Amino acid sequence: MDDLSGGELRLLESLEAVAIGIHGKGSLWRALRVVPAARGPDYDRLVARADEQRERVEAARLDAARAAFAAKV
Q1: In sequence order, which ranges of the chain are alpha helices (DSSP H)?
Q2: 10 Å Cβ neighbour count for 38?
Q3: Domain boundaries defined on the chain
Q4: pLDDT at residue number 2
Q5: pTM for the complete prediction?
Q6: CB atoms within 10 A of CB 21
């Protein structure tokens, strides 16, 4: 579905995209954390930050899902 009107479904779609991006970067940090040659950033901190972001976005995503489908049920 694509909500071009900018309504409730559009917000849900946008939050889905953000959630996918956060999941992807968290997965990358987890992978790099186990690679000895990938020294540099504090991957544990980056993983924790991605997890925190995921939790915040997940709460907003679920609220958006309720709002988007409340009128349609």
Answers
A1: 8-33, 43-70
A2: 12
A3: 19-70
A4: 52
A5: 0.79
A6: 13
